[in-house]
Design brief:
heterodimer, A: 344 residues, mainly alpha, flat, B: 530 residues, alpha+beta, 4-stranded antiparallel beta sheet, 14 helices, 19 strands, globular
Chain lengths: 344, 530
């Protein structure tokens, strides 16, 4: 496992570097921030002074060398907008995003497992068709529309929850409810497809023939083997949320990293943008490792001993299963190895 | 049978339990509060419409800083000015008159050296006394230091001021040359203690204002409380709390649901209903035409643009009749505004004939014009751009609409201007004169080398120079002449409208907005509704 982790860290360093260098260079190509920070009638001397104070008078490669020199000393620069440490600003915003993403995904996964499993028990039945309709709708509704309608109905008309903000548990309801729709809708379809596939496998028949209860058949055998595709898709959805739920953070005044990142882009606040990108890139890298570890626990083919090719193959198969049509009972990809049945 | 206690399975279960535990603990934490958040003083989590001792304000954005010498920035000034800090002299936004604040009187014999008598018995929020030394240090710090204060460039330009504390209650300020509006310029400086760093900006100032800063929860709220030792009348609310939401509809919803008392930067589309209070905000919208490329090289084409735009209909249909058709860059109430100057009438036939005349004179009237508009600069700006594009096209001009975000738009706004390959530049500008004197407009927008002026003429430069140097009644007449000359002989601008702003004001509080409310929301003027 340690060897695997070491290899992942080394292989992730290059993309991380590319992302940071790319953001560094591209941000500076979008124009001189002086116009945003100085009065419109600022004199040429004031503009020069601003450039010198922020190191913008240097060639870009010198600026980059200075930036990476700072990063090695854990100095990520200072915000041009607020005068604060860029790292402090990013680290302050990130936990708020993580909390939102964690809560959203937990709710989405639990609901999706319950609804998806129930739907799979009777493919093409009423419950299956209803859950398919609901999940498709949930996955398709735009965030901003849902957020505004949610505020209008539940905050203004009914007065049950605050419109926005972060104070008190009630303030979580609308942002989480808005965010949970898409992951829930997507995951229901994935869980349902994988469960239909699992429930038609011989080891399920074997378990039933041995007298296992419905709860045990579904919970201990079918669900465990159906979990891998769900984990793949849930991982991808979580990555999207960790990257900042920009629309929801903006509408609800949630002080997360997505909003901070967008503000930094609009304000050409380079140091903060770079700190945000670096932080989220590292978080996504860590999340990917956790997802891989999750696979390894669920599927022996992806354990470190199975080699990179085996992991890739298994992961791609799980991704492919996301495309399983929700209303058909026939699995389109090969089913995961029935580990639970073997162990049983 | 189904033996589930193999070592492999146990290990797997433990791992699953740990993962689930981690996720649950995140959520449990989430159930309590957002990371780093604390319950803001008076900030109610649940909707409430009851009158409390806390005034709740919701802004468009979080102030980047509360540095007093950056308070000319709207997002900073709206919190700081005359609430946390105070100036020596304050401009009454309604009458335009200068009124005493931390200075009680001011005078000059030659418009160059000004003597200011300071108020006694004033304390800073840290308990120290306000003295002439503090007043002098404030001016030194904002105008003469290397801090790069925004207010320095905005109000004072390159020239330093000589400042001297004559005694504990008197200072003397000397300008580089005669400056009849120096007291007005000084009204932009918010006073801080002499001990305030002159080498670094401070995010949280110590002031003398009616409210003192208690806590700034970055990203979430700013909390203030009434300053017990305030020299003036105590404010109506014991506490004041600021939050911010980018979406206008959410700010409006916070008013209607009782979560906030005052919301800034609203528009009628935000569904604020009767709780939305409109006020003239001193902002003027215009097109600035650059004469370096055809067809704008010919004044006839620039005149045609003025005739082609149906300003009355724009104001009536896009802005509900609240805005006023503009004939100049400053609205009523600003020194220099000309009441007699009439807006260009809407005359599409005249516009067409002027374009034909220019064409006959050899001007390439089919040359492309870039109509450059900043996305989301003010409500319905996209629609306004489209209407103008259509009306200019009907006059026979070849106009392309170019929507740009703020940073890109600013490159066109300030010298040096980019050379637009796509055609002659017509930039939509929104200009706000918060100082109340036309000098702050014309020096920028109309002189030959003004930072935001595309071109000018020597004659206009001379008129502006004379107006800048004149005082009182002469000053008014001199600037009126400047605006008339622009419209008759230069035609750099096609003026469209003087705008109105809108505040959301809950029925629980009472506040009369004025032209400065968007930049300087004086919380001491807000009272509980009777």
């Amino acid at each position: 496992m340690l060897t695997y982790l070491r290899k992942r860290i080394i292989s992730s360093a290059v993309p991380l570097l590319v992302v940071v260098v790319g953001v560094f260079a591209l941000a500076r190509m979008t124009g001189n921030p002086a116009a945003l920070y100085l009065p419109l009638n600022a004199t040429e001397a004031m503009r020069e002074d601003f450039a010198i104070r922020n190191g913008l008078d240097q060639p870009i490669w010198v600026q980059m060398a200075q930036y990476f020199g700072g990063v090695l000393r854990f100095d990520f620069g200072t915000s041009m907008r607020t005068g604060e440490s860029a790292a402090d600003m990013a680290l302050r915003a990130f936990p708020a995003t993580l909390q939102l993403a964690g809560t959203t995904m937990l709710i989405a996964i639990v609901l999706a497992v319950i609804v998806g499993s129930a739907a799979a028990l009777n493919p093409n039945g009423i419950l299956d068709r209803f859950s398919s309709f609901v999940s498709m709708t949930a996955a398709s509704i735009p965030d901003f529309w849902l957020a505004i309608v949610g505020i209008w109905v539940f905050a203004i008309t009914l007065g049950w929850v605050p419109t926005s903000g972060v104070l008190g548990a009630a303030a979580w309801v609308l942002p989480v409810a808005t965010l949970v729709m898409r992951p829930f809708g997507t995951l229901v379809q994935v869980v349902r497809g994988a469960m239909v596939s699992s429930l038609s496998e011989p080891y399920i028949k074997l378990a039933r023939s041995k007298g296992a209860t419905q709860y045990r058949v579904v919970g201990a055998h079918a669900l465990r083997n159906a979990a891998a595709p769900g984990l793949t898709v849930a991982g991808d959805l979580t990555v999207g949320l960790v990257n900042g739920a920009v629309v929801v953070e903006t509408i609800f005044g949630w002080p997360g990293i997505g909003k901070l990142m967008i503000d930094s882009i609009l304000q050409r606040d380079f140091a903060v943008l770079q700190a945000c990108v670096l932080l989220t890139a590292i978080a996504i890298f860590v999340l990917n490792i956790l997802i891989d570890i999750g696979y390894a626990l669920l599927d022996p083919r992806v354990r470190p001993s199975a080699g990179a090719r085996g992991r890739r193959k298994a992961r791609n198969e799980h991704r492919g299963q996301n495309n399983t049509p929700a209303t058909t009972g026939t699995p389109t990809t090969s089913a995961p190895v029935p580990t639970a049945a073997i162990d049983a | 049978m189904f033996n589930s206690n193999t070592p492999m399975q146990r290990a797997r279960r433990i791992s699953m339990a740990v993962a689930a535990g981690a996720l649950l603990s995140t959520t449990a934490l989430a159930g309590c509060s957002v990371a780093n958040s604390e319950d803001a003083a008076g900030g109610s989590a649940a909707p409430s419409a009851t009158v409390s001792d806390t005034l709740r304000v919701v802004l468009q954005q979080e102030p980047p800083t509360l540095e007093a010498c950056e308070s000319n920035l709207t997002s900073t000034g709206v919190v700081v000015r005359s609430t946390i800090t105070e100036p020596l002299i304050e401009r009454n936004p309604t009458s335009g008159e200068l009124e005493p604040k931390l200075a009680t009187e001011w005078s000059s014999d030659d418009d160059t050296t000004w003597t200011l008598k300071l108020r006694e018995g004033v304390k800073f929020h840290d308990g120290s006394d306000f003295t002439a030394e503090d007043a002098a240090a404030t001016i030194e710090r904002a105008v003469n230091s290397d801090l790069g204060c925004n207010v320095e460039g905005y109000v004072f330009g390159d020239d330093d001021l000589k400042v001297k504390a004559v005694n504990d209650t008197t200072i003397e300020v000397t300008a580089a040359k005669a400056d009849p509006i120096l007291p007005l310029r000084l009204s932009f400086l918010e006073v801080v203690p002499a001990e305030t760093s002159a080498t670094e900006k401070v995010r949280e100032p110590i002031g003398t204002g009616p409210y003192k800063l208690d806590k700034w929860d970055a990203g979430q709220s700013i909390n203030t409380s009434a300053f017990a030792d305030y020299w003036g009348e105590a404010p109506a609310f014991a506490k004041a709390n600021y939050q911010w939401r980018s979406e206008g509809s959410v700010r409006a919803a916070m008013i209607t649901s009782g979560e906030a008392d005052i919301a800034t930067g609203l528009s009628p589309e935000d569904n604020i209903g009767d709780l939305g209070v409109a006020y003239p905000n001193n902002e003027t919208v215009a097109l600035r035409m650059h004469n370096d490329k055809a067809p704008f090289t010919d004044i006839k084409i620039r005149q045609a643009v003025n005739y082609a735009i149906d300003k009355e209909s724009i104001v009536a249909s896009l802005y509900g009749g609240r805005d006023k058709v503009a004939s100049q860059l400053v609205p009523e109430g600003v020194v220099g505004h000309s009441d007699s100057l009439e807006a260009w009438p809407y005359d599409p036939e005249k516009a067409k004939s002027l374009v034909e005349e220019a064409k006959a004179a050899g001007v390439d009237t089919s040359a492309p014009i870039s109509l450059i508009v900043r996305t989301a600069q003010f409500p319905k700006i996209e629609e306004l751009g489209q209407v103008i594009q259509e009306q200019l096209s009907q006059a026979g001009l070849n106009v392309k609409l170019k929507m740009l975000e703020t940073s890109q738009h600013l490159t066109y706004q300030v010298r040096p201007f980019p050379t637009d390959d796509e055609g002659a530049i017509s930039l939509m500008i929104q200009h706000g004169n918060q100082a109340g004197d036309a000098a702050f407009t014309v020096d920028q927008y109309m002189t030959t080398k003004g930072a935001q002026s595309a071109f000018g003429t020597p004659e206009l430069d001379k008129l502006i120079e004379e107006a800048d140097a004149s005082s009182e009644a002469d000053r008014q007449a001199a600037f009126e002449k400047v605006f008339q000359y622009q419209n008759d002989n230069v035609v750099q601008f096609a003026h469209i409208s003087h705008q109105t702003g809108m505040l959301g004001i809950a029925s629980t509080v009472s506040y009369e907005p004025n032209s400065s409310s968007g930049d300087e929301l004086r919380l001491a003027e807000v009272t509980a509704a009777k």
